[in-house]
Amino acid sequence: MSVEQRLKDLRIALPQVGGPLGNYVHAKQVGNLLYLSGKGPPDGSDGRMPKGKLGAGVSIEDGYRHARGVGLVLIAAIKDALGGDLDRVEGVVKVLGMVNAAPDFEDHPKVINGCSDLFVEVFGEHGRHARSAVGMSSLPGGIPVEIEVIVAIR
Amino acid sequence: MSVEQRLKDLRIALPQVGGPLGNYVHAKQVGNLLYLSGKGPPDGSDGRMPKGKLGAGVSIEDGYRHARGVGLVLIAAIKDALGGDLDRVEGVVKVLGMVNAAPDFEDHPKVINGCSDLFVEVFGEHGRHARSAVGMSSLPGGIPVEIEVIVAIR
Amino acid sequence: MSVEQRLKDLRIALPQVGGPLGNYVHAKQVGNLLYLSGKGPPDGSDGRMPKGKLGAGVSIEDGYRHARGVGLVLIAAIKDALGGDLDRVEGVVKVLGMVNAAPDFEDHPKVINGCSDLFVEVFGEHGRHARSAVGMSSLPGGIPVEIEVIVAIR
């Protein structure tokens, strides 16, 4: 089954990818590796970028939801980089999940699972990846989660 | 000399690798690169996962020891990923050493040396790697150190 | 035009690369990828290593300047690793920009642009890269910015 078909079956619509916040590109390919820039969650239903800190106002459930949103943005950026053809994804290699977190927060894996679960739903076994899920003192614009990923392509 | 022989000579016993704390895998291979997930230290002599923050209770000496422990867990995970054959390691490429640290902590390199020194002991010159050693606001479960690594394999 | 010629035209002099602060190397090559260790800014005009935190004393303008300085150190380290020949750089692949930042700091991209802008000035379109710009709780020696980079070489 094609990835696009699976997205349809899962009723997943990919968000728009906003412009880079600096002098960089969304994705850079070298050989069969595609490096994605770190992404934040898509705008909320109020049209605003989510803000907040895990362990200081943002719940684990909301963090999971934000991380899933980041995953959607990443898949949209991957699709852009691959000329619209997600079937060129051979596998997700490595995820760095960065949580905007209070000094005593301990549940980063539960948050980043939002992105990891999505990758496995969409890409199947090839979506399984190596990962770190860690706590940052702060993130651009105060977003609760930022995730970067390396993808193998064909 | 084989890596296993060197481990024996150094009287190093590899720890068990615990299950992933989320929906990911310990290691993912692409081409001749093996990406390892971020790992924490093995359980202490009290059977509990170490906790604490550098610059706020955990000494540099203990941090070094924890980082060495993380290195042992990483070598065990590499061995698992390579079907038990550590001689397939061509070299350690890149280490990201993440220290659970207070805002004014400055000695991250002295902590992460615990892992770097181990890699050079075990893999010799091929164990030398590029590295960053930096301070996180928090880490999963409150562990003092988390390290991820990229290894070149044959 | 050669990269050296462009450096001359831009009146850019590369700084000395200080020794590693631990048991690691400045750069490690695997295949056509060169992984650089995380670097801090060069010493200031007072001969001392810059210190301080964004959002807690260091301005965005100074942060940008420090990030540009880190970029210069990285280019110097790349040159060393390539036997002095910067024309062997095929492209900058990935930048991880780590800002020593207060918990409420939000302008990491504006800081790390100092490095990204430099890479594009020096390497042209090939200098454009994937990137994350994030906030760390602390950095070695209290430096305001640390950046690591992956470069494709020929």
List the helices and strands and how they pair.
The structure is a homotrimer of 154-residue chains.
Chain A: H1 3-9, E1 27-30, E2 33-36, E3 53-54, E4 57-58, H2 60-81, E5 89-100, H3 108-123, E6 130-136, E7 145-153
Parallel strand pairs in A: 3-4, 5-6
Antiparallel strand pairs in A: 1-2, 2-7, 5-7
Helix pairs in contact in A: 2-3
What does the model show?
The first copy, chain A, has helices at residues 3-9, 60-81, 108-123; strands at residues 27-30, 33-36, 53-54, 57-58, 89-100, 130-136, 145-153. With 154 residues, chain A is α/β, with parallel strands linked by helices. Chain A has one domain: RutC-like (60s Ribosomal Protein L30, Chain: A, 2-Layer Sandwich). Chain A has a 5-stranded mixed β-sheet, with helices on one face. A two-stranded parallel sheet of chain A has the order 3-4. In chain A, helix 2 (60-81) packs across helix 3 (108-123). The model of chain A has no long low-confidence stretch (mean pLDDT 96). The interface between A and B is medium-sized, with 37 and 28 residues.
Salient structural properties:
globular, 154 residues, alpha/beta, 60s Ribosomal Protein L30, Chain: A, homotrimer, two-stranded parallel ribbon
Largest interface comes to: A-B, 37 and 28 residues
**What is the share of helical residues of chain A?**
25-40%
Please indicate the count of domains of chain A. 1
What Rg of chain A, in angstroms, do the CA atoms define? 15 Å
CATH superfamily grouping of chain A: RutC-like
- Sketch the major β-sheet of chain A: 5 strands, mixed
Using the coordinates above, name the CATH class of chain A: Alpha Beta
Adjacency order of strands in the biggest sheet of chain A: 1-2-7-5-6
- In terms of per-residue confidence, which ranges of chain A show pLDDT below 50 for 5 or more consecutive residues? none
Helix-strand pattern of chain A, N to C?
HEEEEHEHEE
Name the quaternary structure. homotrimer
Beta-strand residue percentage of chain A = 25-35%
Label the overall shape of chain A. Answer: globular
Tally of individual helices of chain A: 3
Helix-strand makeup class of chain A: alpha/beta
Tell how many strands the DSSP assignment of chain A holds. 7
The CATH topology of chain A turns out to be 60s Ribosomal Protein L30, Chain: A
- Gap between N and C termini of chain A, in Å? 17 Å
Mean pLDDT of chain A: 96
